[in-house]
Amino acid sequence: MIIIDQLTKKYGEALVLNQLSLNIKPHEIYCLLGANGAGKTTTINLLLGFIKPTSGSAFINGLNVSENSRKTKRFLAYIPENLMLYPTLTAVENLDYFSGIGGKNLSKVQLEDFLNQAGLQKGAFHQRISTFSKGMRQKVGIAIALAKDAKTLLLDEPTSGLDPKASNEFGQLLHLLRDKGVAILMATHDLFRAKEVATQIGIMKQGVLRQQFNAQNISLPELEAAYLETMDFKELEV
Amino acid sequence: MYKYNFVYELKVLVRNGWIQLLSLLLLGLFCFAAFNGSEKVEKRKLDIQAAKTEVRESDHDMLMLLDSVEQGMEVSASRWTIPTSPTAVGNYHPRVADMSPKPLAFIAMGQSDLFTHYVKPTMTGDDFTLNFTEITNPVQQLFGSFDLSFVIVYLLPLIIIAFSYNVLSAERESGSLKLLASQPISLRNWVLQKISLRFFWVALLTIVILTLVMMFFGTNTNLKDWFSILGITIAYMLFWFTMAFLVNLQTGSSSKNAIILLGLWVVFVLLVPSVLNQLGSTLYPMPSRTLMINEMRNLKAQTVKRQDEILDNFLRDHPEYAINDPNQNRKFYHRYVAAQKLVKEELKPIINKFEQQLQKQQAWISQLRWISPAIVTQQSLSTNAGTSTADYENYRGQVIQFAEAWRTHLVPFLYNNQSFTSKDYDHLPVFTYQPLKSNDSSLSWLVLLVISIVLGATSIGLSSKSKSSSTLAT
């Protein structure tokens, strides 16, 4: 479960996140839409504890991120835009390494099972990551989240650069995780994928959450219109 | 986490070819350096052997001549070279005062490229004219000898820098750091473990390769010396890995890390030793050698004029010679040796000043050697090799004592106008070099270990004050 309460981040005088509040429950996928510089990645970095908030707080599984940065990481998994694993290690080895340093000692059968659940072809299990496409690497990322038994998943533009088939497969994997009760926050530019996978959608601009929708109550054209309308919000751009 | 880092770090290194490359590089460097060092030691041994052979042949000729003279035969030799004369024995049949290389001499040339390993003190030669230096290739003087000490002190830190400068920054630059930082681990501990593992692998390789090299080149090495060399080498390596750890935590990009670490290498390996030497010379300048030679010449010129008076004074101080020689037949060498003793006594303050200044310089550098681990390591290795300044000072002192013993043994023959006979041959003084008792270098490597641990702890402290572990990811 992710709770964000009045979260604000300033770099000097620049306000990059302004009093953001969100509540993402288990079985929910929240998609944050917004242009570059809207504050999506900053929000994720704050939830990961990579940066400290100027004010406000964020909670993962009831733990304050600022105060319990390392503890909260036991409950979360993170997949960045470009998931870089160790290229000279195989998929199984990368999964074993990231699970192991996270405190999970898994057998080879378990590791292969997680890769299987993540949709990676069996033939690729023991191939080096250097031979993998971005889509395959993202699947290993999902396997890491599955192996970790993460209660929260943070995704930073995970489908950017994926072909439609890989992007669709990735969306199905998110549904799998959602069904397992994971609370998912995904920052993306991809309106179509957001509409496909999300339960909630928020549109951010200049660090402020402008609009929120229940994904079931909005069609793709309506979402697109709302997004464009938000981006062209003249009053704030002055 | 440690188990996973240990296993997968090795896999990554092996698959990258780093371990193979490093092993080959270290093996190549150590073997070439050991070969180079042992070749030079071998040459010195041969030089000493040649000098001893020359003395044996000269002694054989001397004994033949003595035998002929003692049997009343005519000998076809210049009068002043016939060994019945003590000055002929003292000047034309000197002993070799040699400093045989220790079994580990090949690991560090130390001062051996500057100082000789053997001299032949004569009866009428002056101690200060004993030539303890050798003419060496000036290019070698500039760059030093390519021995194990050079590889360990100069090149090993560069290999360590290449191996550890980008432990954290490479993860940041490749993009894997964020994934890593999203795990419930301390990045600071992760970096420490990574650097420790790399230290472990490089140390293991170094130990294995050094052991192989020692088995091949250092045949008579005892275990204590061997552990001493390993100890100082490992402590020196640890210092450089600690530097890499400190830089990895404090700075950003790989290029910046590399430049900072190379800068530290220049400071600790090149600048500090050079500046300490220069400051030592400035603070404790050596008196002019030209002035000393002028003084010596003046004294000699003065004594030539006063040789009769000096001889009279000498005989007054040594009445036993007057009693033993009722003829009082005094010639050139009687005057010369008496004058030489006076010159030596009068030059003593000037020579002492030289030695005192040299000792002050060395004491100053020795006190400040802890500023640079390179100096500490170099000194320890030279001490183990028996080629340190202290070893050569010890040798020089023993040679001067022997020269005095050689003179003292032959002077009574001269002033008693007593002939040297073949029976006296067996009583001639013999030089036996007594090496310094092996200096224990455990203090050096213990201090280096403590410095490294304190630096490591300080860097963790500084890093945690300026950044939390997670924020290292950004």
From TrEMBL, chain A:
<dbReference type="InterPro" id="IPR027417">
    <property type="entry name" value="P-loop_NTPase"/>
</dbReference>
<feature type="domain" description="ABC transporter">
    <location>
        <begin position="2"/>
        <end position="231"/>
    </location>
</feature>
<protein>
    <submittedName>
        <fullName>ABC transporter ATP-binding protein</fullName>
    </submittedName>
</protein>
<keyword id="KW-0067">ATP-binding</keyword>
<dbReference type="InterPro" id="IPR003593">
    <property type="entry name" value="AAA+_ATPase"/>
</dbReference>
<dbReference type="InterPro" id="IPR003439">
    <property type="entry name" value="ABC_transporter-like_ATP-bd"/>
</dbReference>
<dbReference type="GO" id="GO:0005524">
    <property type="term" value="F:ATP binding"/>
</dbReference>
<dbReference type="GO" id="GO:0016887">
    <property type="term" value="F:ATP hydrolysis activity"/>
</dbReference>
<keyword id="KW-0547">Nucleotide-binding</keyword>
<dbReference type="InterPro" id="IPR017871">
    <property type="entry name" value="ABC_transporter-like_CS"/>
</dbReference>
<keyword id="KW-0813">Transport</keyword>
<dbReference type="Pfam" id="PF00005">
    <property type="entry name" value="ABC_tran"/>
</dbReference>
<dbReference type="InterPro" id="IPR051782">
    <property type="entry name" value="ABC_Transporter_VariousFunc"/>
</dbReference>
From TrEMBL, chain B:
<feature type="transmembrane region" description="Helical">
    <location>
        <begin position="148"/>
        <end position="168"/>
    </location>
</feature>
<feature type="transmembrane region" description="Helical">
    <location>
        <begin position="443"/>
        <end position="462"/>
    </location>
</feature>
<dbReference type="InterPro" id="IPR021913">
    <property type="entry name" value="DUF3526"/>
</dbReference>
<keyword id="KW-0812">Transmembrane</keyword>
<keyword id="KW-0472">Membrane</keyword>
<keyword id="KW-1133">Transmembrane helix</keyword>
<feature type="transmembrane region" description="Helical">
    <location>
        <begin position="12"/>
        <end position="35"/>
    </location>
</feature>
<feature type="transmembrane region" description="Helical">
    <location>
        <begin position="226"/>
        <end position="246"/>
    </location>
</feature>
<dbReference type="Pfam" id="PF12040">
    <property type="entry name" value="DUF3526"/>
</dbReference>
<dbReference type="Pfam" id="PF12730">
    <property type="entry name" value="ABC2_membrane_4"/>
</dbReference>
<feature type="transmembrane region" description="Helical">
    <location>
        <begin position="199"/>
        <end position="220"/>
    </location>
</feature>
<feature type="transmembrane region" description="Helical">
    <location>
        <begin position="258"/>
        <end position="276"/>
    </location>
</feature>
<protein>
    <recommendedName>
        <fullName>DUF3526 domain-containing protein</fullName>
    </recommendedName>
</protein>
